[in-house]
Design goal:
GO terms for molecular function: carbohydrate derivative binding; glutamine-fructose-6-phosphate transaminase (isomerizing) activity. With about 600 residues, the chain is an alpha/beta fold. Helix content is about 35%, strand content about 25%. α9 links the parallel β16 and β17.
């Protein structure tokens, strides 16, 4: 995920900008750059391929001086990772800008600008914005006016910051589908794609809204909405911790990471969905051609990532008509398998270094797979480097061994990919795509609602204090959610837990049912609800102790032996992601009661880099 930092101040800002980029390194990137202009209109730009430290060393030796500047970490989409493609980009000697997101009509704009005499020196979509601003500034009276005219011509997602060396005391920012935040100082102001970048210089923030354009100077921030009207945006006081490795107000990293999920999911979707569509280009270079030819999907993963793949299988086959198999990497790599024509291999991994998954990728390349894509959280990891496409989850640093936000961001990434695949193959029409995207936009707020059940679930967890076994049930795409829930409980509480597709109860698991075996059921209102109710009755008839997580429309009534946890109604497509959160909270609170090491459960490691 790209990171943006900017400043307008009296002091030299180069070190502040580079430090801001350091704080965004967790997002993943392949190059970094900074541009600074001083009061005499001298502009210096430094860009480097690789880590922020490479940039920091170059900035130190370049002696950058100036109070206005912009900086950026880039993850390649258009054009390979290189210094030439790194941000900031320039038009001539005057205009410099940074940009997050993807400009969908960049090819059309590029052709128009070439006709106007502009020369392109990069392969990026971002450079078209720089040249457009320069063109509009020829007739506009201010940089603000030029940027407004420019963004009116852009299609896609962008968070962009522009400066003109001839006007060194201001920058102009614009936001559409890619967040930007303004940090308020004393006699100086800042901006970034994430407030974490600025916590060392300010705690007061303004979050720009969709369509906003803002002009920032040392002493003023003027914001205009999508209709061009001057508006006031609320100032927020942040209490976030500066260090991602700091638990802050939370007792454990796992708890912190559960609560980070609304922000993490927003980061996952940033620049990848517009108001009503998925931006296919955000998947990576060549994605359109690959998706158009996919006839089969093979997902390979381990542990929690495998469970995410199992959910996605339902989405792939129901929504796109493309067949999908999901296999545990340690099994896939050691069996003889048949490679189907035009198969896409998808590897899922939080770390990108999971040994069995990496071995499976290398084997698949030998077996004639059409292409390989990884869904991963760590830029520069082996899976990312060795795959044809890398669709980053952008979950941020996850320290707790039991994965939480990495799992839900994988699900969101997979759902966006499924939608893109169906779109490219003509199997998901505009109306369906708009419906899915609308649900995704709602998801962070819905997850906040799920987190509001923390206290009731904490009380519920007390019932598990003396339990040694638990059974989780679900049907359809909620079966793998039940599997993930059972994995979380066993990982951090050491309770023996299993999960079954509810229809399988009568084929064996009913023998386990008694008053000492809690049965946790994921039961949202959907087409399989009535079938699931029959399975629940099978448990009740045998004296089982039921805990049913259902929405208000499901029609459950609490009775002896059956507790109902009534959740808000959410759209069917995002319900598996939503219902994951209460399961995480339940496991966390049971582990607290059991007194286990929540963040570092026995015998487990965060990244499994051995076979």
């Amino acid at each position: 995920m790209c990171g943006i930092v900017g400043a307008v101040a009296q002091r030299d800002v180069a070190e502040i900008l580079v430090e801001g980029l350091r704080r965004l390194e967790y997002r993943g990137y392949d190059s970094a750059g900074v541009a600074v202009v001083d009061a005499q209109s001298n502009l210096q730009r430094v860009r480097r391929l690789g880590k922020v430290q490479e940039l920091a060393d170059a900035v130190e030796s370049s002696h950058l001086v100036g109070g206005t500047g912009i900086a950026h970490t880039r993850w390649a989409t258009h054009g390979e990772p290189s210094e030439a493609n790194a941000h900031p980009h320039m038009s001539g000697e005057n205009i410099a800008l940074v940009h997050n997101g993807i400009i969908e009509n960049h090819e059309e704009l590029r052709a128009m600008l070439i006709e106007r005499g502009y020369t392109f020196v990069s392969q990026t979509d971002t450079e078209v914005i720089a040249h457009l601003v320069e063109w509009e500034l020829r007739s506009a009276s201010t940089l603000l006016e030029a940027v407004k005219k420019t963004v009116a011509q852009l299609e896609g997602a962008y968070g962009t910051v522009v400066m003109d060396r001839r006007d060194p005391e201001r920058v102009v920012v614009a936001r559409s589908g890619s967040p930007l935040v303004i940090g308020l100082g004393v006699g100086e102001n800042f901006l970034a794609s994430d407030q974490l970048a600025l916590l060392n210089v300010t705690r007061r923030f303004i979050f720009l809204e969709e369509g906003d354009v803002a002009e920032i100077t040392r002493r003023e921030v003027n914001i205009f909405d999508e209709n061009g009207q001057a508006v006031e945006r609320e100032v927020h006081e942040s209490n976030l911790q500066q260090d991602a490795a700091d638990k802050g107000q939370f007792r454990h990293y796992m708890q912190k990471e559960i609560y980070e999920q609304p922000a993490a999911l927003s980061n996952t979707m940033e620049g990848r969905i517009g108001n009503d569509s998925v931006i296919v280009e955000s998947i990576g270079n060549g994605a359109k051609d690959i998706l158009a030819n996919v006839e089969h999907v093979q997902i390979v993963a381990c542990g929690t990532s495998y469970n995410a793949g199992m959910v996605a299988r339902y989405w792939f086959e129901a929504m796109t008509g493309v067949s999908c198999d999901v296999e545990i990497a340690s099994e896939f790599r050691y069996r003889k398998f048949v490679t189907r024509p035009n198969s896409l291999l998808i590897t899922l991994s939080q770390s990108g270094e999971t040994a069995d998954t990496l071995a499976a990728l290398r084997l698949a390349k030998e077996k004639g797979y059409m292409s390989a894509m990884t869904i991963c959280n760590v830029a520069g990891s082996s899976l990312v480097r060795e795959s044809d496409l890398a669709f980053m989850t952008r979950a941020g640093t996850e320290i707790g061994v039991a994965s939480t936000k990495a799992f839900t961001t994988q699900l969101v990434t997979l759902l966006m990919f499924v939608t893109a695949l169906g779109k490219e193959k003509g199997l998901i029409d505009e109306a369906k795509e708009k419906e899915i995207v609308a649900s995704l936009h709602q998801l962070p707020v819905q997850i906040e609602k799920a987190l509001a059940f923390d206290k009731p679930i904490e009380q519920l967890a007390e019932d598990f204090a003396d339990k040694h076994h638990a059974l989780f049930l679900g049907r359809g795409e909620f079966y793998p959610i039940a599997v993930e829930a059972s994995l979380k409980l066993k990982e951090i509480s050491y309770i023996h837990a299993e999960a079954y597709a509810a229809g399988e109860l009568k084929h064996g698991p009913l023998a386990l049912i008694d008053a000492d075996m809690p049965v946790i059921v994921v039961a949202p209102t959907n087409d399989l609800l009535e079938k699931l109710k029959s399975n629940i009755e099978e448990v009740r008839a045998r004296g089982g102790l039921l805990y049913v997580f259902a929405d208000s429309e499901a029609g459950f009534e609490e009775s002896e032996g059956m507790k109902i946890i009534t959740m808000p109604r959410v759209d069917d497509i995002i319900a598996p992601i939503f219902y994951t959160v209460p399961m995480q909270l339940l496991s966390y609170h049971v582990a607290l009661i059991k007194g286990t090491d929540v963040d570092q459960p026995r015998n487990l490691a965060k990244a499994v880099t051995v076979e």
